[in-house]
Amino acid sequence: MREMGIRQKLLNFFVKRKLFSALFTVLILESVFAAIFIYKFGPQNFANKTRNEEENIGGLPPIQTQNTFAFPIDQFKERITKKPFGIYITPQNSPISPERFTGYHTGVDVEYQDITSDVPVYAIADGKIVLSETASGYGGVFMAEIGIDGKPHNVLYGHIRPSSLPKTGQEFKKGEKLALLGTGFSKETDNERKHLHFAVLSDTRDDIKGYVQNKSELSGWIDPLVYFESRQGRTKNKLSLGGYSAS
Ligand SMILES: [Zn+2]
Questions:
Q1: Superfamily per CATH, domain 88-234
Q2: How far is the CA of 59 from the centre of ligand 1 (A)?
Q3: Which residue has the higher pLDDT, 62 or 154?
Q4: Predicted structure pTM score
Q5: Where are the domains of the chain?
Q6: Which residue among 1, 3, 136, 170 is least packed, with the fewest CB closer than 10 Å?
C-alpha cells in the first residue's frame, strides 16, 4: 500500500511537471510572438508606415517621364458602361439596338443619355486642335494633338455639337473646356445617343475611324483608361456635373 502511494505520488509529480512544462512552453512562445508582433507592427512603425503612405498619395511619384491628365469629361470612368475600348461589336451582340456598326471599337463610349443639360468636354493635356469637322457616324468630331510621355499623339472627341467645335489650329491648356456634347438622336450626333466617343491614337495620324476590322489595325489605338487608372488621383477635374459655368 505504501509503495503504491509513493508510486502514485511520483506519477502525479511527473504528470504535473509535464503540464507545467507544456504551459511554460506556451507562455514562452506567446511572448516571442508578441515581441515579434510589437517589433513589426508596433505604434512607432505603424505611424511611420501611415506617414509614408500619405506621402505617396499626396505627392507625385518620382517618375518624371510620365505626365498626368485631366479627364476628357465629367464622370469619365463611371460612365463607360456600354462600349469599352477594343470590344468587337456586331449588330447581333451590340449593347446598342439598333446597331449600324461592326468591328473593334477604337475608343471608349462615355454615356450621357440621362443628362439633359449641356455636357462639356475638356483637354486632357496641353496641345492644339488638328482637325475639326462634321463627319458621317459622328456629327461633330475633332482631334487634338497632345504629348503623352514625351511623344505626340492625336486624341479624338466624337459626337460633338458642331456649333461648339473648336477651331483647327487653336491651342489649349490641360483642363480647358473645348466643346459640348451633341444632342442625342439629332444631326449633331449623326442620330447617335448622347455620348462621347473618346479615342487615343498611337501617333499623330489623321484617322477618325470609330471601328476597325482586325486586331492588327486596332493596335493603332490605345485604351484611354491606361492613362487614367494609375494616374487618376492626380488628374481629377475640379468640375462636376451640374457646375458647367467654369471653363
Ligand atoms: Zn464609340
A1: Glucose Permease (Domain IIA) (2.70.70.10)
A2: 35
A3: 154
A4: 0.69
A5: 2-58, 88-234
A6: 1
